[in-house]
Amino acid sequence: MFPDFEAIKVGDTRTLTRAIGEADVRRFVEMTGDDNPLHVDRAYAEATSFRDIVVHGMLGASFISTVIGTQLPGPGALWVAQNLEFLLPVRLGDTLKITCTVTAKHERDRLLELDTTIVNQSGQTVLSGSGKVKVLEGRAAQPAAPRLERRRVALVTGGGGGIGRAICQRLARDGLDVVVAFNGRADRAEAVVAEIAALDGPSRAVALQADLGANGGAASLAKRALQAFGGIDVLINNASPVIGAKAFADLDWTDVQAHLDVQVKAAFELAQACLPAMIAQRSGRIVNITSQVTEGAPTPTWTAYAMAKSALATMSRYLAAEVGPSGVTVNCVAPGMTETALIGDIPEKAQLIAARQTPMRRLAAPADIASAVAYLASDEAGFITGHTLSVNGGMVMR
């Protein structure tokens, strides 16, 4: 047990009485190697002005440590400073009374100042001084997340697309219930739900339509997801408009705003909707899908898309720092060029060149991204937060 720092008061005093014999001196010499004849050779000592053996001064002083470590403040105390004045010699056979008294207390540093004195059996002070002792704290036990009475639930935006579909399928195989959020193409989202239903496992899925770029779209989605499964434990912000490549001269702010609304504002609002329950249960995972474009060489005409991805990455780091103490992690997965409809407007030749320039000599597959997301959503990644996991085959290395 560590000392109760709050219970220690200025004026508290503890004492120890110890008789000093030849065996104590022998052990001290064996331990320190200090075989000064003044301490061990009676004939030598009698020829000095002391006329007899003088016990090592630090042997007596060492019992101050005994008082500190066993009584005041006790186990867990760290003796950090001491000044000593040796006033009289200690002789063999002396009985010493060692006293420590608290003279000051520093709450912020958990530090005590002590008056330290040693007197002999005749009441003579043989040593006086003052010391400082730090009172250590035991490592606080991390509160365990309460056990859920239901399966974990993942909300995946953009769940009907290539990467989103792979994420939904992988999380379902890992035993999570899945909300497949989509905007257009209800048929693709329903196909994902059917694929999950056909898996050999207990996971369930539901498709929910939401226009994340519209006011209230994210809040409405979160509310309906909660109603569907009773909770949201994993939030995957994957939705993105088409890249919409434009030269900067042709770019309008509405193009930028469209990306910011879906990729940043919606992620912001969904996190705000999901975090209260995650914090209350001391567990939760938020994984935001960013992009290699925020780290590698800029791709001309992708300005609006890259601006939103960069903002999402920055928000993720700041949010991770804020909610970390509550047991919630926030991370990013940054895919390289991935074989999905999102790169459909990129000429095939450019895709082949990109694959050849990648150390792995291929583009990413949606399953590659889903595997990274599944890891960050798992219990095994419980001590990873504020991190961006790049899944680009080595195209960009840091």
Key terms:
398 residues; 7-stranded parallel sheet; Rossmann fold; alpha/beta; 35% helix; Thiol Ester Dehydrase, Chain A; 22% strand; 11 helices; 12 strands; 5-stranded antiparallel sheet; 2 domains; single chain; elongated
Task: Walk me through this protein's architecture.
- The longest helix is centred in the C-terminal third of the chain and has 28 residues, at 253-280.
- The chain folds into two domains: 5-135, Hotdog Thioesterase (Thiol Ester Dehydrase, Chain A); 153-391, Rossmann fold.
- It has helices at 22-32, 37-40, 42-46, 57-70, 162-173, 186-197, 217-229, 253-280, 303-323, 348-357, 366-376; strands spanning 13-19, 77-86, 95-106, 111-119, 125-135, 153-156, 177-182, 205-209, 234-237, 284-289, 328-335, 388-391.
- It is elongated and about 105 Å long.
- 35% of the residues lie in helices and 22% in strands.
- β4 (111-119) and β5 form a beta hairpin.
- A seven-stranded parallel beta sheet has the order 8-7-6-9-10-11-12, sandwiched between helices.
- The protein is an alpha/beta fold and 398 residues long.
- The model has no long low-confidence stretch (mean pLDDT 92).
- α5 (162-173) packs across α11.
